[in-house]
Specification:
homodimer; 2 domains; Arc Repressor Mutant, subunit A; 22% strand; Jelly Rolls; DNA-binding; 255 residues; alpha+beta
DNA sequence: CGGCCTATTGAAGCTCGTCAATTCGTGTGG
DNA sequence: CCACACGAATTGACGAGCTTCAATAGGCCG
């Protein structure tokens, strides 16, 4: 384990801090993956993890690394990405605190991570050894069921995104994505608007929907002119969700 | 169960035959999902299934149906599809004999199938009740592990396809898909060529990669002119795999 | 203030989708 | 057995949508 940490720190320039583990006991009880587990098991989970802090721009793991740990994000934001041979990147998932990533690790002791986990800001995650979790799952069937349910959700999300990118126009996909982000993580402001406090660049949004940062910028500008949203550097506020819905459903072709 | 069969038969016009179950015992032992299970369990699986035959063009299940069964295809070919609000279709998977589909059913008693399973030719599948399988999994942890492994493979496939459709051109995706089909199900002919005996229309290929049948037709014609493949009605033979690889990797832009 | 990352916008061009017309191939029924 | 019908496939023309490149402006931090 220590070897892995050092290797990653070296490879990516990430600074690794080891933090007191008592801090995170409440978090563990809220994680979907650990729902319904016995107090004994939860205690074991509270003891047998490692805390990893990774600074912005560094990786928790990279595509192709041997996958030996499952992570739960405690603070920060992480994006799960794949890079193509010619350097293009796609964003598969955004991870918020309390969410699980690297769960492939539990299944196959000898496989590699199929994607990379990049910290979008300084982030801290709890890491469990996959062999330890496999042992735990033998005594706690709920753990397996929870894990399968996470995988099911993940499959359905990827299927939906594949369908979207295969059938819908950039305009629709972007509107859809903004609505989804607003619903998941947006915060309602005193003035009634919903802001997405995620700091996503135009580039990030482009990689989530399979387009270029230029197309994203053009669309956001035009929507701002129409009063649907208000944009800022690395931020978007949704002013008129209904307008975005009609774009997402392609109800307003040609005006 | 009988009610479900009748309902589906009615809804889709599918003709349902109930066949002797002894026929399929050897198949069950070869299915990846059932690998490593005890002989006792395999016997139980051999007894507690239902055999469903569905004729070409009918559905084993449709998007939104309550999902109560897991299927293993015994003969025929099935495609797993999703349909968009405006009638466009995408093909998520092709199922060949021995492969499992509808596996989401096992996890959530009360959920719906997220996609449809359409018989591309007259097909027969074994169906297990999801409650029965959940019970079985409590005594056979291997079943859970196998299922999770299938799900892992499925996730990685969908991630790869998302990356492709988000970053690659139609040309590359089509070449990639032909190579994949040739590797998975192609048969080497006496003359050394590899034919894909799947009967896939241009439309099917288009729905697999997110394009139109016209683009597929144009590309296949041009590749045939260049001697890379030989095409026929609902069939393709790969003559020069290496040429397709260089197209898939975009090594020959502009000639 | 200067440097760097992010964002905007225009212009040009290419890929791809769309529509329409036609041909090809397969199975059916007279 | 041939003619016909129907689905599958081909091909051309056109244009919309999107990417690409380049130039410029904006915002934030040291």
């Amino acid at each position: 384990m220590q070897a892995l940490l050092c290797q990653l720190a070296f490879a990516e320039g990430g600074r690794i801090k080891i933090v007191s583990s008592a801090t995170f006991a409440p978090l563990i009880r809220q994680v979907a993956l650990f729902r319904g587990l016995s107090p004994t098991t939860l205690d074991q989970l509270g003891v047998n993890h490692v805390i990893r802090s990774v600074e912005e721009g560094s990786f928790f793991f990279q595509q192709g690394d041997a996958c030996r740990h499952l992570y739960v994000l405690a603070q920060g934001r992480v994006k799960i990405t794949q890079i193509t041979a010619d350097g293009q990147q796609v964003v598969l998932r955004l991870i918020m605190p309390g969410q699980t990533f690297g769960s492939i690790a539990v299944l196959r002791p000898e496989s590699d991570y199929p994607a990379s986990a990049l910290a979008m800001e300084d982030s801290t995650a709890l890491a469990w050894d996959s062999a330890f979790l496999r042992g735990l799952a033998q005594r706690e069937p709920s753990l397996n069921l929870n894990l399968m349910d996470l995988m099911r959700i993940h499959i359905e999300e990827m299927q939906a995104r594949f369908r979207e990118v295969a059938t819908e126009k950039v305009e629709q996909r972007l509107a859809q994505t903004l609505l989804r982000l607003a619903a998941q993580t947006g915060k309602r402001q005193p003035d009634g608007h919903v802001t997405i406090d995620l700091r996503l660049t135009r580039q990030d949004l482009a990689e989530m929907i399979g387009t270029t940062l230029y197309s994203v910028s053009r669309l956001l500008s035009s929507w701002e002119r129409r009063g649907l949203i208000s944009t800022g550097r690395e931020s978007v506020a949704v002013l008129n969700p209904h307008g975005l819905v009609s774009i997402a459903e392609d109800l307003d072709r040609k005006e």
